Amino acid sequence: MDVFGYIRVSTKTQMDGYGLKTQESAIIDFCQKNGYDLIEVFRDEGISGTIANRDGLNDLISSFGEVKKVVVLNTSRLWRSDTVKVLVHREFQKHSADVISIEQPNYSGIYTKNPNDFLVNGMMELLDQYERMSIAMKLNKGRRTKIKMGDKACGNAPLGYKWNDKAKIIVDEETAAIIELIFKKYLELRSLGKLKKYLDNSGVRSSRGNRFSKQALVGILKNDFYKGVLRHSDLIIEGNHKPLINKVVFGKVQALINRNRKAGVRNEK
Q1: What is the pTM of this model?
Q2: Sheet arrangement for strand 69-72
């Protein structure tokens, strides 16, 4: 079986006889006696086990793949507090990894249920949830601030536009002509079905190379982003982006859509 080794010392553990060489020698000897293939030994020097963010430990976790067992002289090398213990457990469990402790032959691994672990793990999950909510609130606040300044905050650029390298929405000249054509031809043909047929026969396709569905065409025709409006949640403001359709044309299209809807689907065939 392939395994990793992990060793750690702080000033105190060096005095207690848990030096790096002592730990590494014990791990090598243990692996030889038990037929384990020791792939690599990760180490942290001069850092407490009450600290979770350790370079050697991080390298170990990121190396999990086919190798999923870690040999340590004592589990105190991996953690020195319940909080760090839970954090290490959670990271190991993400990779289905486990621990073998030389000095603790009765240690049954990180998957054994423990009341203390359950309590701390619950607290950590609550903290994680709080952090996710806090990040979401900050992101939403940033988006709303950007929207209020007249800029699209995030998401895919509508057909006819694209994001530039400064995270600004600009006109995509290649596809902007398609949007202008869709609005123009809808007013000329006065039917969604005839518009779709015209686009199909003319070889006009979406950004993915597909034919436009009627639903997609309605979405384009009713999208007031094309006349310069920005929407985000309850915010509706004039955007800084260049409109592709003037407000008069956009208004005529909305009126035609409403008339056709009231008249029934016959006018849309």
Answers
A1: 0.50
A2: 37-45, 2-9, 69-72, 98-101
